[in-house]
């Protein structure tokens, strides 16, 4: 039988995402419920190396469920990529008598957790926190739903201007390697064309779609582009290309950028964070390790952490088909 954990550390790592604070709150309060001490690690793995810890109680996480960002801060750590850095981190954890770790982050953060677990047999549990929704083993990552709604609301506002001036707006949303935000926000906001990294739909198709929109009587159009789409052009080059080939369009560009990562988390993200935090603590207390907790068919399930990193979260091809039909 596995030794019962007495003290669990929680940290956020990589890019911040709405819902991270709600997950911190959930981990801390689940620890309090199960009479397990909890320690917050500031600035991710870098803070672990520097011993930047704070004891957390149920009252430490009052009034944070509604806040975006992360109260524990986040940082990228090159030092943790070295054996010496990880050794320092391990020694600091042992000195504080910490015997379990919850990592809230994306695949880079999970990769660090897997290596750390292998080297020191240290119990690690992952909670997926990234707006890109590109982690295998969960239908939703923390922050994705909020970022999606932020993007959609921004596109709605842009459409008001596009309609008033008979303009074409090209809107770039986040998603370097994954088009989940672009595809879902594009369908939700009624975009005429959506360009995503997973599908190289080509520039000719986009031009034809815009011509069709013009012929059908549309006086304004919205094109949503994921920042990592496969056209090989920046969003500004894309605008120039459209103006050269379709001079009847007056093109404007809007890059939503990091505003998508901020803001108060949606109800969905708050509830998801609460569910995942509790499950992460319960699995650690139960002696399990090297897992990621996620959502599948609205059930909280655990996936092998390495599988979560290496697996590919597939884009919904049915949604692409729906998108084509909606632009008629």
List the helices and strands and how they pair.
Layout: E1 7-12, H1 20-33, E2 37-41, H2 44-50, E3 53-56, H3 83-95, E4 100-105, H4 107-120, E5 124-128, H5 144-165, E6 167-173, H6 180-188, E7 193-195, H7 203-215, E8 221-226, H8 235-245, E9 250-255, H9 267-285, E10 291-296, E11 299-304, H10 305-310, H11 317-326
Parallel strand pairs: 1-2, 1-4, 4-5, 5-10, 6-8, 6-9, 7-8
Antiparallel strand pairs: 2-3, 10-11
Helix pairs in contact: 1-9, 2-3, 5-6, 6-11
Sum up the structure in keywords.
7-stranded mixed beta sheet; 4-stranded parallel beta sheet; 11 helices; 18% strand
Distance between the termini: 61 Å
Strand content: 15-25%
Uncertain ranges: none
Give the overall pLDDT as a whole number: 92
Order of helices and strands: EHEHEHEHEHEHEHEHEHEEHH
Structural class: alpha/beta
- Strand sequence of the main sheet, in spatial order? 3-2-1-4-5-10-11
Name the overall outline.
elongated
Query: Main beta sheet: strand number and arrangement?
Result: 7 strands, mixed
Number of strands: 11
**Number of continuous helical runs:** 11
Radius of gyration: 22 Å
Helical content stands at: 40-55%
Characterise this structure:
The structure is a single chain. This protein is of the alpha/beta class and 328 residues long. It is 42% helix and 18% strand. It contains eleven helices and eleven strands. It has helices at residues 20-33, 44-50, 83-95, 107-120, 144-165, 180-188, 203-215, 235-245, 267-285, 305-310, 317-326; strands at 7-12, 37-41, 53-56, 100-105, 124-128, 167-173, 193-195, 221-226, 250-255, 291-296, 299-304. The protein has a seven-stranded mixed β-sheet with strand order 3-2-1-4-5-10-11, sandwiched between helices. A four-stranded parallel β-sheet has the order 7-8-6-9, sandwiched between helices. The radius of gyration is 22 Å and the shape is elongated.
